[in-house]
Amino acid sequence: MSIPRYLAALLAAISLGAHADTTLLNVSYDVMRDFYKDYNPAFKKYYDAKFKDNLTVQQSHGGSSKQALSVISGLEADVVTMNQSTDIDAIAEKGKLLPADWAKRLPDSSAPFSSLQVLIVRKGNPKGIKDWNDLVKPGVQVIVPNPKTSGNGRYTYLAAWGYALKQPGGNDQKAQEFVAGVFRNVPVLDAGGRAATTTFMQRKIGDVLVTFENEAEMIAREFGRGEFEVVYPSISIDADLPVAVVDKVVDKKGTRKAAEEYLKYLWSPEGQEIAAQNYLRPRDKGVAAKYAKQFPAVKLFGVEELGGWQVIQKRHFNDGGVYDQIAASIAKK
Amino acid sequence: MAASMTASRSAATTEARWVRWLLTGLALTFIGLFLIVPLISVFFEALRQGWGLFAASFTDPDALSAIKLTLITAAIAVPLNLVFGVAAAWAIARFQFRGRSVLITLIGLPFAVSPVVAGLIYVLLFGAQGWFGPWLAEHDIKIIFAIPGIVLATVFVTFPFVARELIPLMEAQGSDEEQAALVLGASGWQTFWRVTLPNIKWGLLYGVILANARAMGEFGAVSVVSGHIRGMTNTIPLHVEILYNEYNFVGAFACASLLALLALVTLAVKSFIEWRSARLAEEDRRHATEE
User: Which ranges does the record mark as transmembrane (chain B) (predicted)?
Assistant: First the structure.
């Protein structure tokens, strides 16, 4: 093949595949892929019919904070769907890609559904794990992803903290001791939620996995329902999963209308139903009632009770914060 | 006479029989455990649930686009490295100039730098917050999180293969034949096409094959600049990671087996080239002694 023909063939190969009319890129975190796999086709059907368009939704998944950094560095996300608001705050603050009050633009502080941390134990619950205080017992191995790198791990850390704080006579010092006790029982600290699940289910390490309620459903689909049991603790943390349109990107690409519709439709009955089917707790009262059986009532507290994400991040998870102190105290022993 | 000499030499210079067996056995066990068993397990896992699922993994549009992107990337990165490698090797082997040793060191740099760092370099240069980010955004040129970034990162990590292969070869061959050609009236291009290239072609092919294998298999650097958009900016190695994270083990191992197959083909071609050039060298020697 001559060189000009080689180059022509190469160019043709590169330009292929860019023929859709409207294309949205949804940058999301690790364990949301299953939900959007169901949601994207449903939304496309609705959107194409209503606006006479041909929509393509592209997905990018990875650790929540890593994905936020990619958006800051120029990954052209029309919408971001994260597992905690600090990641979107970072995009607003460091990337200046959307206004700081992004959360006020959609209902429920821009979180169309929520999840909570549950305890997943092996079949028959051989260690008799019922609640958070069972995680600090000697001989119990707990699988949790690293709170420094994973929102999932941060929610677990805070759920345990809140549990200890709400016990009779609970205070910050007792809570710190309790959380240290939990992390002392962690044999492997994975970087993200998915890796932690693989450690627990595939490599069969640990007695209890602490992760999002919707990840439990994912495990059931992949590994079979008889392999494990879900234990709901007496109290857990309300994990709001926020979404936002990235203004700078949609204005440049001219996709604002499609991006806004895409997020708004998450609150529609169909969007809420798909969420419920993926074991994400819906906001819609009707849908919630319909799926009430699969969402046992659990006493929940929000991150606001611990001061909100910005305060929590600074106090617990920044370098030299409480989590680092706990990690150092465990390393010493 | 000759036989007795080798016999006495081997008795004096080699180890006892059991030591030889032990060492060979250790080496083989090691290779078996760390290379052959994993390689077999890739194909085993890929075919675990039958050929149907295995084949279906390749007809998935995301897998197809990953394969396409990998081929495109290699099709750009390898020719670039070929041209650059020959030019650099020629300059270094044929000429003495100031900064020559610096150039040699620089060519080896991508081998010394971690691929993740290689990827981050491009994010720092071309990312939205990077040096050229604002200018690129103004002119609507996408490099990072698009095909150009992936190609750039791949070119970076495969930089040394061709040049490193050719420099020692060309230095050993010397420039006598080229000088003869020039004296006989050949032009520069004629000398290159008719004398230099035939002399280095096997080494060149070897370098190109290694560069190609690395270009298709690179993970770290490409992962940093890819953005992981499904069906858009995933190469085969990135696609393998995604499938694995989705518990699609058959799909992950099927795509991994494609890369393993590439490695096996590379090894076969490499051995063939080595065998071929050894034979050519021997023929040359025989010709020389006959004359």
Answer: 21-44, 64-90, 102-123, 143-163, 204-229, 249-269
